């Protein structure tokens, strides 16, 4: 059995501080064998930097996925093209974009009883939706097909981070990949949904994992800025709370690697005060 923790979009400094405080507690309670997090909002709410990635690696995150904001900071090419940062971006961007959209990750599965620990391979795929996005991306459904056709025999478990706006698009991809993927995890909307489930074929799903962000905010952004944007229709620079109560949203998924199925998915939702 493998336990894999997937953390929703980590937003800015308050989100990073929250992760640093929560991960030790999560490790004691759930004993995850791999920790994945969506990193597209790490650096002041938009994009990633070398320092913010290293900060989260030091905190215990093992691997990162991205989204439409992953290209927002300068030097993103150096980060996405460097294996030491353990990060992928949506696979349905053009092949000329920096980085890669999937990765096979080696994970040690703990021994049961008198058995020995064994090495398992996780195929992690990052995809982005097309509904409500301005980007002109390849079809995420067909991109999944192409990746799995080439690499399914390299993996014991396939996990998809589907970074998308529309709940309909996320649910459709879940049914489309059912049985072929062992988990389809939605990200991007920053609101944790209440529909975690496992199909009869053993595919775990949640429409959105949520985020690690300031509770007293609008999706992590200072609430008054967003309210004024709606009132005036004038774009305003987003700012992000640095202190206060922070919400930590994640899911922990248990996989039976012999049967290649998910056996349990559990939401994690905790609040912690950041000063």
What's a concise summary of this model?
The chain has a single domain, classed as Purple Acid Phosphatase, chain A, domain 2.
Structure characterization notes:
The chain is built from 6 helices and 13 strands. By secondary structure, the chain is an alpha/beta fold. The protein has helices spanning 12-30, 50-59, 76-80, 140-151, 167-177, 223-232, and strands at 2-7, 9-10, 34-38, 63-65, 102-109, 118-128, 157-163, 183-187, 197-198, 204-206, 211-214, 244-256, 261-274. The protein has one domain (2-274): Purple Acid Phosphatase, chain A, domain 2 (4-Layer Sandwich), CATH 3.60.21.10. The strands form 2 sheets. Strands 1, 2, 3, 4, 11, 12 and 13 form a 7-stranded mixed beta sheet that branches. Strands 5-6-7-8-10-9 form a 6-stranded mixed beta sheet, with helices on one face. A hairpin with a 4-residue loop joins β12 and β13 (261-274). The model has no long low-confidence stretch (mean pLDDT 95).
């Amino acid at each position: 059995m493998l336990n894999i923790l997937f953390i929703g979009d980590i937003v800015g400094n308050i989100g990073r501080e929250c992760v640093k405080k929560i991960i030790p507690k999560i490790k004691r309670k759930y004993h995850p064998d791999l920790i994945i997090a969506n990193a597209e909002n790490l650096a002041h709410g938009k994009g990633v930097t070398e320092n913010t990635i290293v900060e989260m690696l030091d905190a215990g995150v093992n691997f990162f996925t991205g989204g439409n904001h992953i290209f927002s900071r300068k030097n993103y090419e150096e980060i996405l093209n460097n294996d030491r940062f353990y990060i992928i971006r949506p696979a349905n961007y053009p092949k000329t974009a920096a980085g890669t959209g999937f990765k096979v990750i080696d994970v040690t599965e703990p021994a049961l009883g008198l058995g020995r620990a064994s090495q398992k391979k996780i195929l992690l795929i990052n995809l982005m939706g097309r509904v409500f996005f301005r980007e002109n991306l390849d079809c995420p459904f067909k991109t999944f097909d192409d990746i799995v056709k080439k690499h399914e025999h390299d993996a014991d478990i396939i996990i998809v981070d589907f970074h998308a706006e529309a709940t309909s698009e996320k649910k459709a991809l879940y049914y489309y990949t059912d049985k072929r993927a062992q988990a389809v995890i939605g990200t991007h909307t920053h609101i944790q949904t209440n529909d975690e489930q496992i199909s009869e074929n053993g595919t775990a799903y949640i429409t959105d994992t949520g985020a690690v962000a300031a509770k007293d905010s609008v999706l992590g952004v200072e609430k008054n800025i967003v309210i004024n944007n709606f009132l005036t229709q004038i774009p305003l620079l987003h700012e992000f709370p640095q202190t206060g109560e922070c919400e930590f949203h994640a899911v922990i998924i248990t996989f039976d690697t012999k049967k290649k199925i998910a056996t349990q998915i559990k939401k994690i939702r905790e609040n912690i005060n950041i000063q």
